[in-house]
Every structure is written in C-alpha cells, then in structure tokens.
Amino acid sequence: MPWEAPEDFPKRYGWNTPVTAPGPDGGQMLRGIRRIQHDPLSYLHQVWHDSGDVVQFPIPRPATYLVSSPAGAREILVNHNKAMGKRTVQYTTLSLVTGTGLLTSDTHAWRPRRRMLQPAFHHEMVALTRGHVVNALERLNAHWANLTQDGPALIDVDQAMMELALEITGATLFGVDLADDAAVITEATLAALHGVIQRARNPLPMPMSIPTRNNLGMRRAIRQLDRSISAIVNARQAQPHDPNSPIRDMLDVLLDPDVDVPLTPQQVRDEVATFIVAGHETVASGLTWAWHLLSRDSSEQELLAADTQRANMVFDEALRLYPPAWVITRRVLEDIEIDGFVIPAESMVIVSPWLVHRHASVWNDAEQFIPDRFAGGVPQMGYLPFGAGPRQCIGRDMARLEASMILADLSSRWKFEPVVSGEVSIDASVTLRPAHGLPLRVSRR
Ligand code: HEM
Q1: Is the bond preceding residue 385 a cis peptide, omega within 30 degrees?
Q2: Distance 283 CA to ligand 1 centre (A)
Q3: Does the Cβ of 103 fall within 6 Å of ligand 1?
Q4: What's the rounded mean pLDDT across residues 388-399?
Q5: Domain residue extents for the chain
Q6: Rg of the chain taking only CA atoms, in angstroms
Q7: From ligand 1's centre to the CA of 151, what distance in Å?
C-alpha cells in the first residue's frame, strides 16, 4: 500500500497538488529559505533527517521530491530511467550557458547525440589522456619548484587544480593548448555558472533581456566563453586532422562532415561549452577536496606518498564525501512508486549524492575520511558521484585516470599542510567548492 497522509497532515498543497510523502510544512519551508540559499547542504540534511528517505516539499508546481535511499536513487536513475526527463530548473538554467548539449538535452535529442559522442571516449582516447596529464604536471611542478625555492609556499590549491584540469580537458578533447588561456576560461566559466546558480535560487523569473547585475555578468561571461570556443573551433577548421588517423578527438567527432546529419555550428558550440563546463570544474573540485582531506590527515598523506597505487581509493573517497555534482534532478514523465511512495507524473525529483553517500545502510562512520573502504572496489548501490544508468557521466574513466595520476604524482613530490584550522566552509554551487579557495602550505618532500 502506498503511503497516505496521516490525519494531521495536509492532503493537498496549492493548485490541488496531492500530498504523497511526508515533508516540511509551508511555514518550515519559508523559515528555511535563507538556509536553502546560503547553506543548501545542511538544509537538505535537516529535511532528510526530519522526514526520511522520500520527502515531498510543500511546493505546488511542479510537485518536488527528495529521494535519498540508495535503492530509491537507483530506481530513479537506472530502473525508471525511461520515465525520467531533464526538464528541470537545474538543467534549463544550466543550458543558458551550455545550450542544449549532451548534459542538458532531453531524452529524444540525447540518445543519438550520446551514440555519436561515445566513440570519442574509447580506450585509446582515454589512454591518450595520460600523455596530456604528464605534460600539464610537468608545467605545474616546475611552477611550484619556483615558488618553493626559498622554502614552503602558500598556494591556492583550488585555483591550481582548476587551471590544471582545464589545461588537460583542452588538450585531451580539443587538441589545443589552453595553458595560456586557462585563467580567462576558468574565470568566464565560473562567472557564468555563478550567474546560473543565482538565477536558480531566485524565486522570481528574470528574463536574460533584463539588465540586472547578475544577467549582465552572465552575458559578459558567456560572450568570453563564446570567444574562446570560436578560437578552438576555428583553429581546427583551419588545420583539420588527418581523416585517416586512428585517433579522433572530441572535436574531430563534432566537426565530422561525413555523418548522416552533421552538427550545426550552434550545436558544435553547445557541445564544446558542455565539455568545458562538465569536464574541468568537476575534476578540479574532486581533486581540491582530496587535497583538503589529505592535508588534514597526515598519516593518509604519508601512506599515499609511499604507495601511489592508493590514489584511486583516495579520489573515490573524496568524491564520496564531497561529490562535485551534489544534486541530480529529473522530471518524472509518468507515475512511479519509490520505496512505497507514489511520485506522480510531472513531478521534479532531486537525488542528492551528498545525502546518499552518507546513508547508514551502506556507509559506516560516513563522515570519516577512510580511503580503505574502497579497497574492495566501488559498491553497486549508494555511490553515485558520476550518476548512474544510461545518463551517467561519459567522462568517468577519463576523470578517474586523470585524478589518480595527479594525486599520485603531486603527493610523491610535495607535502600539503593546512593554514587554517576548523571547518572549511563549502560553496554549494554548480559543484562543491571551498568558499574561500584552498590555501595550503606546500613544501618539497
Ligand atoms: C570527477 C569528475 C566528474 C564528476 C563528479 C562528474 C559527474 C557527473 C554526473 C553526476 C553526471 C550525471 C548527471 C545526471 O545524471 O543528470 C555527469 C554527466 C556528464 N558528464 Fe561528468 N563528471 C565528471 C567528469 C567529467 C568529465 C571529465 C567530462 C568530459 C570530459 C564529463 C562530461 C559529462 C557529460 C557530457 C555528461 C552528460 C552525459 C549524458 O547525459 O549523456 N564529466 N557527470
């Protein structure tokens, strides 16, 4: 029997929206608004703690649910994937920056595009990433050697990881050297995404044509991104790769004129923007939190320096505690039942890896940093930093390879120590980032 609202519970929210799961009432939600805007992670945690694994918010349209059980998350992303679309605030707002690329496109447009782009992520291509990571690390190590000539240096490791990850994304997917441009693109991406978040958290609709400060900042950032993307695409069109080469990068696939329906310039732009946005900030965020955790756990840091094979486990554990994609949203296309609760068609569902990764049914001492918990591999349920099901991350293998190489190399050369004690506050934006960067004291080993 599906759940029914008890006597003392409203049976309907506004616009006749049926109540099919417990959750905060309107007053509690209103009182939580500041927290939703400034500390959404703790708000989600509170709601989960108070109301359980399936929560309905008192929001009339669309009816909005939070699903946090490992089995429920799997039902949404894997078993019911055909009943899920991407027409959600999260993705429609993100598409202001990325257009309708692979990440934001809805089911019908998505399938052929995924089939088209998947070959760019074959094994040889992922293996090619190795060379690019080695080059980028060489540059970073030389830079840090300079900075530490006279002893330990204070380095914003968050900024360094952003630039490193962008350089690797540029070289691997688009065959271009973004090293000199990295700061500009990183800044434009962050500014555009900042605008996205401000919009998503603003209850009032604010068309892009209205010159608010946020809209103007976003428009400027998107123009900068567009300029950088045009430069990348134009350079390849001026000097195409040999079509007989066995290795084709992402740009070769996007610009291929010999497919049934070649992509339009706008579609190419949208995919390049998607891969810049999806491919570098996520990896950088995961790495930044890994360094944060290691800097505060000197024995784990020493274990890693002595045995760099541990890098994968360290990264998996960092992604568990700080999943860069901390919410995944779906629009439900037909009525479904999750853990005994009916979720009607047209509802919005939020799955938060931040919560699922702390579920006591799968994780002991969930708040502790214990890389060894991944010694036996990644569990089938309760772990979804890369999502799950057909729409799971296309760049997962590339990201894990890149990150483990970076953790292994840097930890064997450098020692990282915190410069501030106490909690580091988290900016839960498009990804999770430390609110004030991650300054660490870096010294040579
Ligand atoms: C640690 C790094 C990464 C994390 C945590 C991450 C996380 C995710 C998650 C959770 C999704 C699924 C979103 C959903 O179901 O709505 C996703 C999708 C996606 N990711 Fe990643 N990602 C990472 C790295 C990358 C990289 C390196 C690339 C590209 C090179 C990339 C490109 C994409 C794309 C294009 C999609 C959309 C796939 C589709 O819908 O078919 N990601 N990612």
Answers
A1: no
A2: 10
A3: yes
A4: 95
A5: 12-444
A6: 22
A7: 38
Please give the number of the atom of ligand 1 that sits closest to the Cα of 275.
29
Handedness of CA 121, 126, 131, 134 (dihedral sign): positive
Hey, which CATH number is domain 12-444, 3.40.630.30, 1.25.40.10, 1.10.760.10, 1.10.630.10?
1.10.630.10
Question: Contact 178/251 with Cβ under 8 angstroms?
Answer: no
**Which carries the bigger pLDDT value, residue 268 or residue 89?**
268
Whether the Cβ atoms of residue 274 and residue 101 lie closer than 8 Å to each other: yes
Of 331, 393, 396, 402, the residue with max ligand 1 atoms within 8 A of its CB, to mutate for a pocket test, comes to 393
Helix, strand, coil percentages for the chain (3-state, nearest 5): 55, 10, 35
Regarding the beta carbon of 275 and ligand 1, being less than 6 Å apart is answered yes
Looking at residues 83-90, what average pLDDT do you find? 92
Which DSSP string corresponds to 291-359? HHHHHT-HHHHHHHHH-GGGHHHHHHHHHHHS-SS--EEEEE-S-EEETTEEE-TT-EEEE-HHHHTT-
pLDDT value at residue 385: 98
DSSP 53-89: SEEEES--SS-EEEE-SHHHHHIIIIITGGGEE--SH
Q: Is 240 left (phi over 0), alpha (psi -120 to 50) or beta?
A: beta
Q: What is the pLDDT of residue 180?
A: 66
391 lines ligand 1 (CB under 6 A): yes
Question: Look-up: residue for tokens 């999260």?
Answer: 90
- 10 Å Cβ neighbour count for 426? 18
Rounded Cα distance between 313 and 365, Å, is 17
Work out whether strand 414-418 and strand 153-156 pair parallel, antiparallel, or are unpaired.
unpaired
Q: Is the CB of 283 under 6 A from ligand 1?
A: yes
Q: Mean per-residue pLDDT for 257-267?
A: 88
- Band of the pLDDT at 192, cuts 50, 70, 90? confident
For the Cβ of 393 lying below 6 angstroms from any atom of ligand 1, the answer is yes
Separation of alpha carbons 69 and 52, rounded Å: 9
Least Cα distance to 178 among 229, 246, 118, 253 occurs for 229
The atom number, within ligand 1, closest to the CA of 431 reads 5
